[in-house]
Design goal:
alpha/beta; three-stranded mixed beta sheet; 14 helices; 12 strands; globular
């Protein structure tokens, strides 16, 4: 949330958002009609070619606009994943909201209800959220949705700790289970979210990224009223986090790095350039890099200072 947005009252922001989202959706839908058409069979073939199979645990991040013109739209995309991993597998998707709105809502009496609160993470995640049988973890702005064999294990304990990405959180479980993180038409930035597990569990992490705890009240996906402490990531520190404006350089650097390691594998899904990484090796490499002072919050200026003024990615990759 930028400084200008903060000046707009929460109630007005909420009233404007549906119109803004509708306009954005219309523009993206028009762009998709210009792309090659994909069927359910096409998308399942793409997933099979990429090596996905029955029983996999997949954390899927996505951009509908990049997938293109799909028969049946987002519903077909969700089906392609569900039919690929079948009932013995598990599909997870983020259903994140806005931390600032939750904090403001505590002051104004506007309470998040996870039974109806929409995902801010795109059309595919919103369709998935409302899919029959999908469950949602208990967190007012960083919930994760899942369906499949390991749903209970992945989601059940999110409420037990004030931190977002504690060891028993969905992200913690993704690392524990070595689930596959899938990016459909999105950058590596979303895959770097497992760094939050490191930040929330490792006292040696080189920078402090948290804001003080605040009391949050919300309604969970079962209709229960929850009041608990929540620790969010500091919005000021997060301004330099990968995926934020002007962080393209570290996005490129880490994409090349994890591709060179063989951790990041690339494939095509519909019209979308896509990738997959196993969570456990990503977590271990991020831990190694953090000990060198290299984190997903590193600025280009800080990097140049650390690297003797050399801004090149190749010099950094040469360190191994």
């Amino acid at each position: 949330m930028n400084k200008f947005t903060k000046l707009i009252p929460l109630s007005l922001r909420k009233s404007i958002r549906p119109l803004s989202n509708k306009i954005r959706s219309i523009v993206r839908r028009l762009l998709r009609t210009q792309m090659d058409r994909s069927t359910l069979g096409d998308l399942k073939a793409d997933l099979a070619s990429a090596g996905f199979s029955v029983g996999d645990i997949l954390m899927v991040h996505s951009a509908m606009s990049k997938v293109g013109n799909v028969d049946g739209g987002a519903e077909t995309i969700v089906k392609s994943f569900l039919e690929t991993v079948e009932r013995s597998g598990t599909i997870l998707m983020p259903a994140y909201g806005a931390a600032g709105e939750v904090e403001e809502g505590m002051k104004t009496g506007s309470i998040i209800d996870l039974r109806t609160q929409k995902s801010y993470m795109g059309k595919i995640t919103e369709v998935f959220r409302t899919w029959t049988g999908v469950k949602r973890s208990s967190h007012p702005f960083s919930s994760v949705c899942a369906i499949g064999n390991d749903t209970e294990t992945m989601l059940a304990d999110h409420w037990k700790n004030p931190n977002i990405s504690h060891i028993d959180s969905p992200l913690g479980r993704i690392v524990e289970k070595d689930a596959q993180i899938v990016g459909i038409g999105v950058s590596i930035a979303v895959g770097m979210a497992v760094s939050h597990v490191l930040e929330d569990t490792d006292e040696t992490f080189p920078i402090e990224v948290h804001s003080p705890a605040f009391k949050a009240k919300y309604v969970d996906s079962n209709g229960g009223s929850v009041i608990r402490d929540i620790i969010r990531f500091d919005p000021e520190v997060s301004k330099t986090r990968i995926g934020s404006p002007n962080t393209e350089w570290i996005n490129e650097m880490l994409t090349k790095h994890f591709t060179k390691l063989g951790t990041m594998r690339h494939f095509r899904f519909g019209n979308a350039d896509s990738w997959v990484m196993n969570a456990a090796p990503v977590f271990e490499e991020l831990k190694r890099l953090a000990k060198l002072g290299i984190t997903i919050y590193l600025t280009e200026t800080q990097w140049k200072t650390m690297n003797g003024g050399d801004p090149s990615i190749d010099s950094w990759l040469a360190r191994g």
